[in-house]
Amino acid sequence: xxxxxxxxxxxxxxxxxxxxxxxxxxxxxxxxxxxxxxxxxxxxxxxxxxxxxxxxxxxxxxxxxxxxxxxxxxxxxxxxxxxxxxxxxxxxxxxxxxxxxxxxxxxxxxxxxxxxxxxxxxxxxxxxxxxxxxxxxxxxxxxxxxxxxxxxxxxxxxxxxxxxxxxxxxxxxxxxxxxxxxxxxxxxxxxxxxxxxxxxxxxxxxxxxxxxxxxxxxxxxxxxxxxxxxxxxxxxxxxxxxxxxxxxxxxxxxxxxxxxxxxxxxxxxxxxxxxxxxxxxxxxxxxxxxxxxxxxxxxxxxxxxxxxxxxxxxxxxxxxxxxxxxxxxxxxxxxxxxxxxxxxxxxxxxxxxxxxxxxxxxxxxxxxxxxxxxxxxxxxxxxxxxxxxxxxxxxxxxxxxxxxxxxxxxxxxxxxxxxxxxxxxxxxxxxxxxxxxxxxxxxxxxxxxxxxxxxxxxxxxxxxxxxxxxxxxxxxxxxxxxxxxxxxxxxxxxxxxxxxxxxxxxxxxxxxxxxxxxxxxxxxxxxxxxxxxxxxxxxxxxxxxxxxxxxxxxxxxxxxxxxxxxxxxxxxxxxxxxxxxxxxxxxxxxxxxxxxxxxxxxxxxxxxxxxxxxxxxxxxxxxxxxxxxxxxxxxxxxxxxxxxxxxxxxxxxxxxxxxxxxxxxxxxxxxxxxxxxxx
Length: 679
Fold this sequence. Notes:
Elements: E1 44-45, E2 56-62, E3 71-75, E4 80-84, E5 92-94, E6 100-104, E7 111-115, E8 127-131, E9 140-146, E10 151-156, E11 161-166, E12 177-180, E13 185-191, E14 196-201, E15 205-209, H1 212-215, E16 223-228, E17 238-244, E18 249-254, E19 265-269, E20 277-280, E21 283-286, E22 295-301, E23 304-309, E24 316-320, E25 335-338, E26 342-349, E27 367-373, E28 384-389, E29 397-401, E30 407-412, E31 418-423, E32 430-435, E33 450-453, E34 462-468, E35 473-478, E36 483-488, E37 498-501, E38 507-513, E39 518-523, E40 528-531, H2 534-537, E41 545-551, E42 554-555, E43 562-568, E44 573-578, E45 589-593, E46 601-604, E47 608-610, E48 624-629, E49 634-638, E50 643-647, E51 664-667, E52 671-678
Parallel strand pairs: 16-20, 41-46
Antiparallel strand pairs: 1-25, 2-3, 2-26, 3-4, 5-6, 6-7, 7-8, 9-10, 10-11, 11-12, 13-14, 14-15, 15-16, 17-18, 18-19, 19-21, 22-23, 23-24, 24-25, 27-28, 27-52, 28-29, 30-31, 31-32, 32-33, 34-35, 35-36, 36-37, 38-39, 39-40, 40-41, 41-42, 43-44, 44-45, 45-47, 48-49, 49-50, 50-51
């Protein structure tokens, strides 16, 4: 039921699953020697040798009468990798940030759970959920994501409705919108490129909504169609559904009579976007050799389809290859895995660890510059976020009002959700605000967003925040407590972090290198703490290396006060911004540290841009509190002088050394942080 384009999703490669033992977060690889040891014995091919599949991670959610509600993580050949429960039991998807989202009907009202580290998590790891009477959940089943809107579409089976829920919300919150249907829905497939939604209904029909995100389903379905096969038999009870955008085709599963284990069907529908009325299936699979009895869900992966067959002989995953080239009929699946009552499936192609979405490495990427403004707690712009074109050709434009008394640093995850640290000067009102789909929003909404705050969080004066999407973590530089705090990206409310020691030196910002598995932390005493093998030990025992920027083997004289920090993987270079004295408007600097992955101790900088102190300052660097880099150009949030600066070709232009002016500047009200926001 994960109906997102697979190319947009992120997860750890299945063959390099890391054992992540994180105190307090419990992010790790669960043991695979549970009740699943025997279900791999039921593997069978459909003849002609073992099929070959594109490397992927397959998530199979069970929902058996015996109480098995496990999610089983498997490879593309359905070999078992991991097993856990989330507290839900129905439809699943895996989002671009690598989080598993699952609907459930176990409680009085049902729930929607988001669980981080989809591939490697353990039962009991950090999660957040939407649950309670305000949700109006009534036996929720299939789900799909609208990432650009920060919404999850829920097939609310018990009430003949679709519910649009905030993807980052937690608690007893209501839907953003409710869409009435003519029949109960079981599953949904959303095509974001065309903004079209397909709804599989249990009366045998498919409801189609055009401009769904734009209109939120107002006015009902634009059209509805039913299906007949080549024997002129009509569709009865549609469940699983998925859409092939490349060929404009739907694949739909028909359970038939729920009590029958041999009347299931699988349909292929051509020209799906314009289907209306009664449609004849281009291909139909049915008959005893198919083992289709209650095919409750399916998932396309290119031209292959995996099917959750819930009822037939206790349940199985059935896999047909090249589904659009087959003639159908009573044909056995190419691969069969007997497994307890599978309810839902999600498939994520294998991918390598990648930088965070704001750590752009290709300057050709389309993006805008996103900044926070923070002149003083409670001031007019202190909770606002602004955007600029990368050219800095015009003044910052208001993009979002967080309604926080003091917005500090902002970053984004791969789903476009924003994480904003805030600190209004009190220990009781500091924390992290998580905003769903920032680019599509104007204001904070408690029904769509959530807050992490409270005594357990240790958040007193949080500054820089870094997302390690593939680890499912957010990393916070806690300046007031002189420590780094690591939270699950699924944290909510008064959550406790893992504490990483900085040697009692206050940090200001950090940057994580997923390829090298190193966390770099900018410290306010002018040094950089490097934590190697970060995913393995979470910085236990303190930093592995301390990098001291120097010139000709001598450390720079005080005051040195590092704030912004970015790592460029392609050149193995750290770029750091030094505020110097926070009260001075002309003693800031920008520096590079070459061979950062191995640098330790006194390290001569590669280049340094700074005021020479002779009254001829051209740099405009006073308090460069944050930086952003696109692989070519460096952007600087210069707070005390009220500027956003850009330094073109910063690493490669030999002229950008010493007392030189930035390439361009634009005025901004006390910019506090700066990131690059992909468009």
